[in-house]
Amino acid sequence: MLDVIDLNIEFHDHLIPETVVYDFDLHMDPGEIVGIVGESGSGKSMSALAVAGLLSRKDMQKRGKILYQGQDLLSCSRRELRKLQGSEIGMVFQEPMHSLNPLMRVGAQVEEALLIHTDLSKEERRKRAMDMLARVELKDTERIYRSYPHELSGGQRQRVMLASALICDPKLLIADEITTALDVTVQAAILDLLKQLHEERGISILFISHDLYVVKRICSRVLVMQKGRVVEEGRVEEVFEDPKTDYTKELLASIPKIRKLRQ
Fold first, then answer.
1. At a CB cut-off of 8 Å and minimum separation 6, what does 66 contact?
2. Mean pLDDT throughout 131-158?
3. Is the entire prediction scored with pTM above 0.85?
């Protein structure tokens, strides 16, 4: 499904160019859940944004290949890229209040991808949106549909973002730190929901996090990034049981003891 080959990302918005991702490689098969983990500034989110086609084509240089089902997302036209965004590739961000339009009702925002990528009627779009809101386990969907983002809780907004990303049934979902701003109970519920959606739809998920414990709960493989480079890669169980690098060992050591007892 996805092959990222030798991706390098260099910013040119300062006097001296700054490379933020070095020689990044990633392979994903259909239906796989792969995690990218690392501290802030490690390059994990930048790599994910490149895969989603959301990095500016100005003030930065990207080298390498991002092959989605054989199509290179780095070299394709903006028009071709827009056809994939939302329909084939969905993305959910850490803080939905920064992604949701505060002046638009939730229903209109969930339907937006349908408006762009389908010929469904207004009634059909509304029904699909209502069904999707229910599918991400939001209760009182009529109220949610008519609400503005500020009228919802953080967990509800994150579920709305999931509904928006999944409304066109994409084959790849990129989830960038989507549980970071949530409390532990809501975080667990969102992870369980992602696993359910994966099992039911066979969707591939690229899961970005700074938290190895969260990655262990949902991913089968993990890439560990530090200072723009992948420093370790393997099956989650192998990385947890036998980490190879000092950096990975530090990340594992940072997991609170109470979480380790639950593993």
1. 2, 3, 4, 5, 7, 50, 51, 72, 73, 74
2. 93
3. yes
